[in-house]
Amino acid sequence: MKKINWYPPIILGLLALLVITFGALVVSRASLGPAQQFAEGTGQETFQWKLVTTWPKNFPGLGSAPERFAKKVEEMSAGRLKIKVYGAGELVPAMGVFGAVSEGAAQMGHGAAYYWKGKLPAAQFFTAVPFGLNAQEMNGWLHHGGGLELWEELYAPFNLIPMAGGSTGVQMAGWFNKEINSVEDLKGLKMRIPGLGGEVLNRAGGTAVTIPGGELYTALQTGVIDATEWVGPYNDLAFGFHQIAEYYYYPGWHEPGSILEFIINKSAFEKLPGDLQAIVRAAARDANQDMLDEYTARNNRALKELVDKHGVQLKRLPDEVLAHLKTINTEILEETAAEDPQFARIYEAFREFEAQVIPYHRISEEAYYQTRLLELDQ
Amino acid sequence: MKKINWYPPIILGLLALLVITFGALVVSRASLGPAQQFAEGTGQETFQWKLVTTWPKNFPGLGSAPERFAKKVEEMSAGRLKIKVYGAGELVPAMGVFGAVSEGAAQMGHGAAYYWKGKLPAAQFFTAVPFGLNAQEMNGWLHHGGGLELWEELYAPFNLIPMAGGSTGVQMAGWFNKEINSVEDLKGLKMRIPGLGGEVLNRAGGTAVTIPGGELYTALQTGVIDATEWVGPYNDLAFGFHQIAEYYYYPGWHEPGSILEFIINKSAFEKLPGDLQAIVRAAARDANQDMLDEYTARNNRALKELVDKHGVQLKRLPDEVLAHLKTINTEILEETAAEDPQFARIYEAFREFEAQVIPYHRISEEAYYQTRLLELDQ
Fold first, then answer.
1. d(Cα B107, Cα A173) in Å, to the nearest integer?
2. How far is CA A371 from CA A137, A236, A363, B254, in A?
3. Which residue ranges form the domains of chain B, and what is each CATH number?
4. Which of B57, B68, B104, B107 has the least C-beta neighbours within 10 A?
């Protein structure tokens, strides 16, 4: 799952720089004024919000969460809070979402925190850490392990309130036109893989590239890249990668349980009466769970179609390769922590929670998965 | 996690029989009347609901879900729907919850569907099936795999609407004072284990017994039973089983991802305006996710305390034993399906979803858990 750019990176970068740097300063009551009015006669205030997203409108799975959220809020508020959802590029480009919500051009956004790692390296902890927590564990950390409070602190200077906005579950390692049998095969591998995963690949001797979603198919088809990761079977089938790639690798070591985000302009949120604030929070929680449920229910059907109908070759990355990537990943996390105190602080909390959750999941979730695969006796 | 009876089983049984058999017939608008009134001046109707539970008031984890639910509903509705939570035995006994909500003595209940298996064997599919789906998969099945619709159909004749009401995650196999090294050791084992798990144990040569929560500690201490299952570290530590049992076995083959339930009297629900109905649904979804998040975050800390501080001996059930229990479990499910068309229909849907979800989880969640445990290279 990655950023989808429709605008040249330089313009995008400048825009992001502008809105992120100055966003928090220019928010004013006036800028949010039109979102708020009194319903005639009832005495109850009504609100009209804009929700900008980093996905194309109604993108399967990822893009359905903000639609569901908006619908639920409208139902629960009996129309007092109406939220219009904009796909990427409709109101602001995908990578302009953070800035637009920060400055109040839109009241809400839906995307993924690791898109903002250029400004906030620590934001990556709130989407996915390679070899880190899976979806169930991320939700445990955010909602009962202190994670959400750290996220709120990180975004507070930008006048933003973050909330978990869905999860894809464990992703796939990606589509490859080159077999990976040893760490040697990573050398020279040109792969589209963003974030920490990309840094890990670079240090393993490969070349991580950033290619907008719209150009990805052609890049893989023409050999500009050897491989690309995307999300998982449900999204990948729709994309058509099976037509142009030989191997479908697992497991998704780089994104073990990516969490998406809702971001809300803090000034806009504070203007809502308490009942509408509670409604917004519950609708986000509802959408957060519903996306994982949807991926859980739909990934396998898509995988079956990919394998049975389209003859996709499923392959597991060798243990040697995974262990090598894991070592590099730890090095990078520790180096980044040494340079960035904010990153270091959240990394420490993240690791502490990992130490809290992993041993129990070893004897519960993991031991159970193994049990289920036991051959029957007789 | 089991039923907690404070009333003698015979009275309970008679009560349950009465309320379940006649409940649907006696519901009337009148019986729900006092729950509904108009707030003075505002023109908006307000509602007062009772929510009866199968747990003691504020029981950790399980009992906090209905409290959270009630609080969220009150906030979101700005006090228009107030819900008072009653612990087991305060208004009706634990096992009287289904009947009380069915007949309208309370508008809502919180418990677990498999408690009603005496009346509705198929209800067990909506809590836990041995060797079946884990929490993430159950949520996928219920919310995007057709499971909830089957559950609604099952409860409709009782004037009840069911919703998922939290999950414990994979449970522990239980506390034992007898080592289990082979299938031979199951013979003569006296264990408190309800539901399908208990039937499996009986057929394996053991004796499944039902003992109310309040008598469990003494029964295990005095050797009346050799073993008991309960929930997992977070709840078990509070119970004090480590003081009287030698071994703590895993994995929880009998309850791989128990889902709890909210049940709502259909007539009461239909009296709510659309916004309050949507609020009730979202608050249930919120509580459903929050409980799993809480268990995920807290189980491991409790496990660590049990092992490090109290010297508990963790043991894994041998593969031979698990495979034997799995074979018996399949036999029982198939025999029950042959006798009960309703059970058969839901069993078929459940198996179909298993076939949809298990292969992808094998290469995603499970492969990822394994990857995380790889030794680092060098």
1. 48
2. 21, 30, 11, 11
3. 15-168+256-297 (3.40.190.170)
4. B57
Q: Which of A76, A275, A322 sits opposite B282 (nearest CB)?
A: A76
- ∠ Cα B61 B62 B68 (to 5°): 75
- Is A360 within 8 Å of B137 when comparing Cβ atoms? no
Mutate to test the interface with A, among B365, B370, B378 (most CBs of A within 10 A): B365
- Give residue for tokens 């907008």: A212
Chain A residues in contact with B234 (beta carbon < 8 A): none
Q: What do you get for the CA distance between the two ends of chain A, in Å?
A: 44
pLDDT higher than 70, residue B195: yes
What is the pLDDT confidence band of residue B375, given thresholds at 50, 70 and 90? low
B151 is in an annotated binding site: no
Residue A78 CB burial class (10 angstroms; 0-12, 13-18, ≥19): middle
> What is the rounded CA–CA span in Å between residue A31 and residue A107?
10
Which residues of A are documented as binding site for Na(+)? 230
B331: nearest CA partner in chain A: A376
Does B147 lie at the interface with A, CB-CB under 8 angstroms? no
What is the 8-class DSSP label of residue B377?
Answer: P
In chain B, residues 268-287 whose CB comes closer than 8 Å to chain A: 273-275, 278-279, 282-283, 285-286
Question: How many whole angstroms separate alpha carbon B133 and alpha carbon B257?
Answer: 7
Tokens 């006092």 belong to B34
- Which of A143, A279, A297 shows the shortest C-beta gap to B140? A297
Confidence of residue B37 (pLDDT cuts 50, 70, 90): low
Total Cβ atoms within 10 A of residue A304: 16
| B67 marked as binding residue | no
Residue B259 bridge partners (DSSP) = B167
Q: Which of B185, B55, B58, B67 is nearest to B111 (CA)?
A: B55
User: 3-state DSSP call for residue A131?
Assistant: coil
Res B35: pLDDT: 60
Instruction: Say how far apart CA A369 and CA B316 lie, in whole Å.
Output: 14
A34: burial class by Cβ within 10 Å (0-12, 13-18, 19+)? Answer: exposed
A235-275 residue pLDDT tens: 999 889 999 999 999 999 999 999 999 999 999 999 999 99
| pLDDT level of residue B214 (50, 70, 90 thresholds) | confident
Residues 241-260 of A with CB under 8 A from B: 250-253, 256
Chain B residues touching A299 at Cβ < 8 A: 360, 364
> Beta strands B36-38 and A227-228: pairing type?
unpaired
